[in-house]
């Protein structure tokens, strides 16, 4: 019985397993770590035969990928920065709906100097604003996915009035990164 | 709409251009030629978009038809994200979130006047220079420098194709002249015709969550009518004020647009208690920045292709207009 | 005008594999995580190799390769099967490696430099890389173990696995070459792999 499953796995690796036999096999593999390990060794055999040397994925590689997907985090390999490392924020996995989380993982950049009540008299407002504006921006923040989505909405609404170059730059940035990932200062240090 | 004669082969950048109306050394004329080209020409290209941390390859298709222009920008590096601008809407496909953001298109009709155009004060704000450059993509180029005279806005260096004025390369520099963003075309074609299929999204969005704006109310809500920033960089004027519905935000939002003729800053005022951002939060998205803060129970957000300090200063200066304030545009 | 195409140094898989990849992707898109795990297992070494070639510091290759797979998983909804799955994955891996390099280098933008893709990857591949001593030693041992195990196989099993893994022939083609039924080919290849697996187990557990 085990042999039959493993033989199916071998055929799957070669693309020679009929589609209707795949379902059962995939489900078994999901549950059976030994089976996954064996599949990994079948793959390894082929790689080792084809090239005499060179880097290989470690034995735990696939498990680490699976864990990273489950955790919903993306570890971006980076040189250790001189500043404290940014707080990482969790993204939902592909199958989960995007939900506004009540638990905001955020570090406040600047605490507002004024209360959020009714409008205050002019002088106090200006004073509060000056105090707010003079506080330095010190750390990075980690918005929720809902905030990023709102920010994307703002960016898109703004981009329609930005002129062709501005629009293209903003659109490219929206596509390239997650809106809401912040940095306290620019990464570039040298002038050309 | 000017007629342009097509070259022999499709897809070759050999379209004959109109002779320059002003002398070639006129930097302002080159800027106008570039804006015209970007708005009125068909083009298809690949470019890399590079900021400090990353570089992505994008494909852009810009199609001009009888009823207006449509556009599609696709990330080619695996995220599957793309933006499609149809005649009436803008769709942002985010496959990694299973979400499509939908906004109505707003750059047409009377609001097209709100698009940046250099005014008489432009020379006081930016220093412009045109010079020769090395060839790019095998084409002769002129280099247009737009340097701000203060540190509150960005500078641009644009490598313009001599024949069509299309920007083949763009570098954005911060207020101190340090480069922070690069857009570099690695391929650019300007075909006479573009199939409308090229503007269709490739993403299979079945099962995605479509986040749409609801229809905006006919009148702006009276209590929002009077919000204004009291601090703006010199030269920024209010060019439009509208009520906008943002995908995913329940209530309509007041949207003020300010421009200095080249850069734009938007101020959004969102009523009610925030469900999203913590009070006072900064975000960088490429070279653009956003800053949110709480004012009188509203979330005020300034967004623009300007340095972070600029949007922060603008956002934190927004007040309801019941308080007598000096008009916007007064320098600090 | 330059056209930038990915340098696909890996041989294209047989069409049977492409189709089975597509089926696995479809299952993964429907939520079957096991299907994606299989794809990871199948391409993990290829991606690690590719990334190691591009990074200046190949000790990070595994982390960056891991990120590439996670990105691919998140973007699965946008894969429609217009290209082979590995071609699509290849591109994601290249981009992830380039981004990782850029974030490390913090290279200032040079107005005059040509930042075309070909040039970047050409520079990266010219750099010679050295693995950590431990990783190299283990990798060497894995290669030696596999090759020894194959050399010790009975001839029909050895022929079958070599025709499959090195020549890339389909079961039908191997059956024709060895003058036996397809079912026999499938069984021989399976038994060859089992033998190699038995040899690898003590090394990797």
Number of strands of chain B: 20
Summed up, the helix count of chain B is: 3
Integer count of domains of chain B = 2
Helix/strand class of chain B = mainly beta
Domains counted in the coordinates of chain C: how many?
2
* End-to-end C-alpha gap of chain B: 42 Å
Radius of gyration of chain C: 20 Å
CATH class of the largest domain in chain B: Mainly Beta
Order of helices and strands of chain C: HHHHHHHHH
Overall mean pLDDT of chain B = 79
Strand order of the largest sheet of chain B: 7-8-9-10-11-1-2-3-4-5-6-12
Q: Radius of gyration of chain B, Cα only, in angstroms?
A: 21 Å
The coarse overall form of chain C would be globular
Shape by Cα distribution of chain B: globular
Largest sheet of chain C: none
Which CATH class of the largest domain in chain C applies here?
Answer: Mainly Alpha
The helix content of chain C is 55-70%
What is the share of helical residues of chain B?
Answer: under 10%
Topology as H/E string of chain B?
Answer: HEEEEEEHEEEEEEEEEEEEEHE
Low-pLDDT residue intervals, each spanning 5 or more residues of chain C: 1-14, 106-131
How would you characterize this protein structure?
By secondary structure, chain A is mainly α. Chain A has helices at residues 2-13, 22-31, 33-50, 61-71, 122-134, 145-159, 163-176. Helix content of chain A is 48%, strand content 0%. In chain A, helix 1 crosses helix 3 and helix 6 packs antiparallel against helix 7 (163-176). Chain A is elongated and about 65 Å long. Chain B folds into 2 domains: 27-199, outer membrane lipoprotein receptor (LolB), chain A; 215-320, MucB/RseB, C-terminal domain (Phosphorylase Kinase, domain 1, 2-Layer Sandwich). Chain B has 3 helices and 20 strands. Chain B has helices spanning 27-40, 122-125, 308-315, and strands at 43-51, 55-65, 68-75, 82-85, 89-94, 99-104, 126-132, 141-148, 155-161, 167-173, 179-189, 209-212, 227-229, 237-244, 253-259, 264-270, 281-285, 288-295, 298-304, 318-320. In chain B, a hairpin with a 6-residue loop joins strand 8 (141-148) and strand 9. In chain B, 51% of the residues are buried. Mean pLDDT of chain B is 79; it is low at 1-24 and 217-224. Chain C has 205 residues and is mainly α. Chain C has 2 domains: 15-108 and 116-126, Rna Polymerase Sigma Factor, Chain: A; 133-204, Winged helix-like DNA-binding domain superfamily/Winged helix DNA-binding domain (Arc Repressor Mutant, subunit A), CATH 1.10.10. Chains in contact: A-B, A-C, B-C. The interface between A and B is large, with 69 and 99 residues.
